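HUMAN: Can I see a protein plus its fold?

ASSISTANT:
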Amino acid sequence: MKRLLSLGCVLVPLLLGWGGCDTAEEQRDFEDEAFSIPSGYTSTDENGEIIAEDKDDWRTAPAYNSRILVDPAFPNPAAPGDNVTVPVQVFEFNAVGGALQLVSFDENRIPRRLDDTPDAGNPGAYVLRFSPTVLGVRGLIRLFILDSRGDLVSYGDVFIDS
């Protein structure tokens, strides 16, 4: 039976033109990249217009590819008193089985939920917002978007100006 499943992972994707059974591995690689040290950010104005793009920011996880799109956070850089907005578009019904959560680490390296959408199961536009003052940090910070199971959907960096 195990041999049949392995064969199915190779033949079915080849016949249908898919990439194979490596989505789980791609997802793990994506998560490893997300938990690396931030090195840049996509600069945006107060309306969300991109000024300078960091290609590593706000990519969609392989598990959600083509079903969810995350636009860059704005404004970025942000002042401590600003409200930072992260727009999310869901394209497929039940692509997310429940909430989306925006999470980062505070000054003590404790993960903090900054905002969430109670139900992002329907296609549409969703907005996650937070004030950087709740984190108590300055400089480059990494934000994570998680689904209701805690799986990574996207990540990006925001520079908090002093």
